[in-house]
Predict the 3D structure of the following.
Amino acid sequence: MHNCTTHSDCIAEALHRAEEICDKRDLRFTDVRRKVLELVWQSHGPIKAYDILDQLDQRIAAIKPPTVYRALDFLTENGLVHKINSLNAFVGCSHPLRHRECYFLICSDCGEAKECCNLDIVDAVAKTSSRNRFEIKHVTLEITGECGDCRGVH
Amino acid sequence: MHNCTTHSDCIAEALHRAEEICDKRDLRFTDVRRKVLELVWQSHGPIKAYDILDQLDQRIAAIKPPTVYRALDFLTENGLVHKINSLNAFVGCSHPLRHRECYFLICSDCGEAKECCNLDIVDAVAKTSSRNRFEIKHVTLEITGECGDCRGVH
DNA sequence: AACGGAATGTTATATTATAACATAACCATG
DNA sequence: CATGGTTATGTTATAATATAACATTCCGTT
């Protein structure tokens, strides 16, 4: 389902990048936030808030929902995590510095949510918004279907 | 916030169109479904399932959540209603026959969710999907921001 | 009328998310 | 290094959203 060679490296890299970004922006990359982000990357696919909660519970005593949601809010606001609304789930952003230009191809079979960038789409969205005198704050584009691997297409 | 001249006409028209479509497709446009669709159109903006429930409660004794959700599922599956995932709310589809090519401009100020069609976007989405060997089942495109009216732009 | 399938009713509960207030950690400044 | 303000987290409770599972009713067909 995923394309990183060594998964632990991939998580470590994401955490490292996050730390750098937070440093640069004077944001606190606290322990809770780090652990939540780590779990999001560990799942390497959309993960639900309460699944994060369950996994944290095994490590830290008595983490409660607000703690997880706050961390997810922080990570989402700062471009480190995406919320996938159609799944009520969260996924690590693979290029936080270009965080606003992404969309997702979500396979309903294997559950992968592939993050993509596409300037044609970004352009078309920008144009149609300005034509409607609409000022964009946030764009959610979630494409659900079946991926090539699951369909056996090559 | 909306552009129909006579709101009751606009609701009546939507219901009439829905009835025709159901007839044509041999679907049952039952009393519950009609009433739910009517409330969706009456709100003339995204409405939440439990708000529909509350309003139905005043008319029919003891409607329960599953009834509303089933009706919404039916209406959504058959292109008469859109679910807006980023709001957990539902809105009437203004062109059920071209239901799959829509997206929304959602004003976070006035709450309007303007349904739009744009071939450039549809094309760009189709192309990027096929390039990724991905077979589309459903596309959610929700653009959140501020509309021209609310920004005072003309 | 009797049957079969679709729709709805009903009870209960699962899942997702936040409000509100208390405490703790962090950090700038005197 | 004490103090006070700000930010983050802990804690309790509950709100908001959604579905499972089974019973009953409705509706068209035979």
